Amino acid sequence: MSTSKKTGSRQLVNRTAFSGALDNDLLKQLDKLHQETQIPKNRLYDEAIALLLNKHNKGKKTEETSD
Fold first, then answer.
1. Alpha helix (H) residue ranges in 1-67
2. Which of 9, 13, 42, 52 has the fewest CB atoms within 10 Å around its CB?
3. Distance between CA atoms of 45 and 40, rounded to whole angstroms?
4. What is the pLDDT of residue 11?
5. What is the tally of helices (H) and strands (E) in the chain?
6. 2-52 pLDDT per residue, tens
7. In whole angstroms, what is the distance from residue 48 CA to residue 34 CA?
């Protein structure tokens, strides 16, 4: 069974398309970082969200814990 999602004419396998709005200054800084590093914006979004979730202890656990 395939769990892929279709978005327009492309098919996403391990990703989900989403839409949102960012602060104008943050978007400018993100665009500049993307241009300077050539890191895809999707990868920058993933990293930023992972850091935020980790900060709030909601990220993926690397070890199983029995709390």
1. 24-37, 41-55
2. 9
3. 9
4. 81
5. 2, 2
6. 455 555 657 889 999 989 999 999 999 999 999 999 999 999 999 999 999
7. 13
